[in-house]
Amino acid sequence: MDKVKVVQSEPPVEKEVLAAAVVNISGALTALYKSGLNRDAIEVLLVDATRLPKRDIRAVLDAMKTLRSRYTNL
């Protein structure tokens, strides 16, 4: 069996950049919920746009709500 060598073409992303991205995602989700659309409408739009099952969309939206508290100290 041949060995596989992984070559990373770019340096790793700094943790501060990742933390800022998580905070931005959290803020975007908050803004989406404040837009006037309820959760059901958001789910329907995402199901239509992605053709993913509603169960998967719900799991992602639920996980996105906790990203900031789970992965940052901000």
Structural descriptors:
mainly alpha, 74 residues, single chain
Would you mind describing this structure in some detail?
The chain is mainly α. It has one domain (15-71). Helix content is 68%, strand content 0%. It has helices at 15-34, 39-50, 54-71. It is flat. The N and C termini lie far apart (46 Å).
Helix residue percentage: 55-70%
What are the low-pLDDT stretches, counting only 5+ consecutive residues below 50?
Answer: none
- The total count of helices amounts to 3
Quote the distance from N terminus to C terminus: 46 Å
Q: How big is the Rg? A: 17 Å
Q: Main beta sheet, described?
A: none
- Report the strand count: 0
Principal-axis shape equals flat
Overall number of domains? 1
Fraction of residues in β-strands:
under 5%
Please outline what is shown here.
With 74 residues, the chain is mainly alpha-helical.
Topology record:
Elements: H1 15-34, H2 39-50, H3 54-71
Helix pairs in contact: 1-3
